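Person: I have long wanted to understand how a fold can be written as tokens. Underneath my words sits a plain record pairing an amino acid chain with its backbone structure tokens. Those tokens are not coordinates but codes from a learned vocabulary of shapes. I should like you to check that the lines agree and flag anything odd. The protein I mean follows directly.
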Amino acid sequence: MEERKRRKPTWSQRWIAVLALVMLALGLGNLARIVMALRYAAQMPDLQMTVSWIYLAVMGGFWCVVFLVCMLALMRLWPWGRWAALAATTLYQVHVWVNHFLFDANERARQLWPRDAALTLALLAFVWVISNWPSVRREFQTERKAIS
């Protein structure tokens, strides 16, 4: 039986895999949001909130699917995967900040805005810088096999 040699991933492919792991983490974080929203909705149905449990669960489900699709697209090196990851991450952070401005109901939540802003900027800088490296961009310009 002939043994197939596995090519080692290039540095750019490794960074793409790191980006895919970030997308996976964001997707799983939003999956946790669904679970927690449904759990808390059952335990505390009469809790006064600025948004409903259903809103939290639906938004968690939407972003979970978006980020898991982005992760798959990055790992498969689909030509649109890089732009999808950039757009999804940026739009997700816009959505997070719109929710902060509209729905943060107490002073404690507002006190966390500087920390949240730093985390947002760090995430966006990481995703945009890695995605726009010339070697990473070249990986998505032609059809290639998935990262193995």
Observations:
- The chain has a mean pLDDT of 91.
